Amino acid sequence: METMALGLLLFFGLLNLWVFHRFKKPxxxxxxxxxxxxxxxxxxxxxxxxxxxxxxTLAFYAxxxx
Length: 66
What we know:
Oligomer: single chain
Distance between the termini: 38 Å
Structural class: mainly alpha
Number of strands: 0
């Protein structure tokens, strides 16, 4: 179960990185969120997914304001 969750986290994280790169948005916040969420995922999978969702939301919000 955790393997599937990690796979989905990485898939959507990399997909979002590609979208940000394609539309010339800053990649650093998104890359940091992906790194931190994968790190936290190994401590607690549920907390890692929550960090991922919150971080992605904030990164998209920040990119939309520019």
